[in-house]
Amino acid sequence: xxxxxxxxxxxxxxxxxxxxxxxxxxxxxxxxxxxxxxxxxxxxxxxxxxxxxxxxxxxxxxxxxxxxxxxxxxxxxxxxxxxxxxxxxxxxxxxxxxxxxxxxxxxxxxxxxxxxxxxxxxxxxxxxxxxxxxxxxxxxxxxxxxxxxxxxxxxxxxxxxxxxxxxxxxxxxxxxxxxxxxxxxxxxxxxxxxxxxxxxxxxxxxxxxxxxxxxxxxxxxxxxxxxxxxxxxxxxxxxxxxxxxxxxxxxxxxxxxxxxxxxxxxxxxxxxxxxxxxxxxxxxxxxxxxxxxxxxxxxxxxxxxxxxxxxxxxxxxxxxxxxxxxxxxxxxxxxxxxxxxxxxxxxxxxxxxxxxxxxxxxxxxxxxxxxxxxxxxxxxxxxxxxxxxxxxxxxxxxxxxxxxxxxxxxxxxxxxxxxxxxxxxxxxxxxxxxxxxxxxxxxxxxxxxxxxxxxxxxxxxxxxxxxxxxxxxxxxxxxxxxxxxxxxxxxxxxxxxxxxxxxxxxxxxxxxxxxxxxxxxxxxxxxxxxxxxxxxxxxxx
Length: 541
Ligand code: ADP
Ligand code: MG
Known about the structure:
By secondary structure, the chain is an alpha+beta fold. The protein contains 17 helices and 23 strands. Strands 11, 12, 13, 14 and 15 form a 5-stranded mixed β-sheet that branches. The radius of gyration is 30 Å and the shape is elongated. 46% of the residues are buried. The model is unreliable at 526-541 (pLDDT under 50). Adenosine-5'-diphosphate (ADP) binds next to helix 4, helix 15 and strand 20.
């Protein structure tokens, strides 16, 4: 009918792969990402050094950071990066686990595809297994509450393992737990933590041990003038989002000054207005003022004379933090300042940290926003400590939010796999194969941990499965001791939410990738026509 001519429906230069090839390529790309981060899993995980195009270096074993910095191009690989990002946003820890799991689910699927099982069957089986997993996980979890401080600290420490903060793990865990406890919101039985309420500020210099919790806010700024006191104790605090200067627009109206007298009275008028602004602030009773906008030199002069500590051009996010920490209301009208607008802190102080000024608003009575100042000898150390503390804070928050924790070291995954296999037996049809493949994939976590500890991974898995059959749901790989132990007793404890979220995102991504049987990549519109017989493979440019 077409006289042997192909019908072209795609623009020239478009690339299309279909069927098994498309699936194979996608799986390969996704697995490539997961293989890269796999060796970083656990306390003996290795680090990656990432160098960007301008030569900046990041050294980390944080899954989310690695996949983000890698700048992957392949669409299926990008879906794996999304898994890490979601995990990072939802929980703040467990990113490597989620990525490795996605890769392994796809590996297991590939074996079934090779045996001729259709991808929709695999996808359906995975969905069933993932749903069942959520149920089983809730059963496996142990209840945890706000008062279980030792347990919360263990969770923080587990989250920090392998992150270069090892030495100061206990001190940082303590700080992280205290920080979360300050800002946690209780609604009946439920707890929630807004991670924006814990500001993690890093400053290079000093040692990790100099890291501290500030019950208030740290600003990477200086006070408005050296003439102001460098610290004020128990000050009333005023937060302003109006400028303490005369805005251009106020005086921009065409004013024609024709005589020296007029000029004088005009400047006098301006000075008077500025003095009124300063007076309004002073009269409010505030001894520390944080202003989101600018401050005229004259206002600064008057405030300094009155012994007021003032900071100008504070960012909006820091204003919000200050309000939450000090209990002050952000005021926008100088004429209507009242006592109820003012907040409190024990100390407002400018301090030199490693040669740079920072402002500390500390000792707030009931702060709903706190700060962690992270210190470390070099840029790379502070960065890694910051990531460790972020994970610790995320871990503790996640534990409180779901109110449940599980044993780490792969214990939870082995137990889940065991129960999923039991469930598979109740399912007839080919989905059973997929559900069993799902269970196998879960064991990638203990297997990888065993490998990182130099243990024989097959032996270890066999032993672990046997122990779990005998009701040892906490048996896992004690990586640091290179043997199987009760991980709960060992204090290797993780929030249930990490597992719940990791399994959810990993299985969703795997299902999505499996259902794709056609990849159509159109060439970019702006692509110049290829020179005849010239350079192929110039790609998109
Ligand atoms: P993720 O980005 O997934 O959090 P990590 O590198 O933090 O990756 O590794 C987390 C895994 O390491 C979890 O399975 C956790 O249970 C395990 N783990 C952490 N500390 C230990 C330990 N001391 N012994 C055994 N396993 C541990
Ligand atoms: Mg972790």
